[in-house]
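Input.
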Amino acid sequence: MPQVLPNFIIAGVHKAGTTSLFYYLGDHPDVCASLDKETNFFIYTKYKTPVNPLEKYYEQFEKYNGEKIIMEASPGYFYGGYDTAAEIKDKSHNPKVLIILRNPTDRVISFFNRKREVFQLPESLTLEQYFDDCKNYSEADLLREENHLYTGFEFGYYIKHIDAWYQVFGDNLKVMFFDDLRDSKKVVLSLCDWLGVDPGFYANYNFEVKNKSVNYKNRFMHSLAVRLSFGAKRFWRNNQQLKSFLRSIYYKINGQPVSKTDHDAEIKNRINEMYAPYNKQLAAYLKTKGFTQFPGWLK
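Output.
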């Protein structure tokens, strides 16, 4: 087994297009992607659990065959702050790191919808109830792994974490916005330039959106689909065309758009007000890092 470690890590954030980018870049012949999209190898630094042995990390890159870029994507790393960033730099020999930020209100709603979709949160739970439930957990509580389902709102305070990543990685850190992925090809070509791989591979590439949230018509059929998806992640990772084909058929049979009710609009306004001062701080901070163009939620 080759003992190689990543030189490129997508470190954040959840529900911000990290899955799509992982697969787009992983298809490039000069990129060796981890066997699992989210290895979460360094998550022990966030939860203060025993250190993982590097041998387990090597296994994720056993298919390495001389590719220029060795990549993994674990969006939970971002919230580990300085400890996680420093451990990644030390163990992975100072890789390049990408962080993608999304409007925190949209991100938490997507997170909430996804967790209900895969039955990790009760189907009957409303966004307002989830909001109130999350407020019952302190910051210390949310650093315990068993409470991860209730981190949805806390993890939208990006300003609490971003500086640590700049401190550790400096010029090896790239921050982008989910809004930019409306033009996925443009984003991927810019990353090719940053990583030093040939952009020509993407001339006729199909930039299909991965891991989007959907509702379902039949609960039993969807529960089977969820178990099949989670139970064979590596198989689907290595058979993307088959997965896309079957998923398109499944969506036609059992999928339906995620509904947005008037009640959700009301709670969304409350969430926007909660995040507004933190977004303002984030915009001011990013200006000190040379940013001049911002998506609407940061203007």
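Residues 1-103+151-210+277-299 form a domain with the Rossmann fold fold (CATH 3.40.50.300).
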